[in-house]
Amino acid sequence: MSLAKEHNLAIIEDACQAIGAERGGRRAGSFGEVGSFSFFPSKNLGGCGDGGMMTVRDKEVAERIRLFKNHGSSPQDKYTNLVLGINSRLDTMQAAILRIKMRSLPNYIENRRAHARAYNEALTSSGDIICPPIENTASVFHQYTIRTGQRDALQKYLGEQGIPTMIYYRTPLHMQPAFAYLGEGPEAFPEAEKASREVLSLPIYPEMPEA
Question: What is the residue range of 47's domain?
Answer without folding.
Answer: 2-102
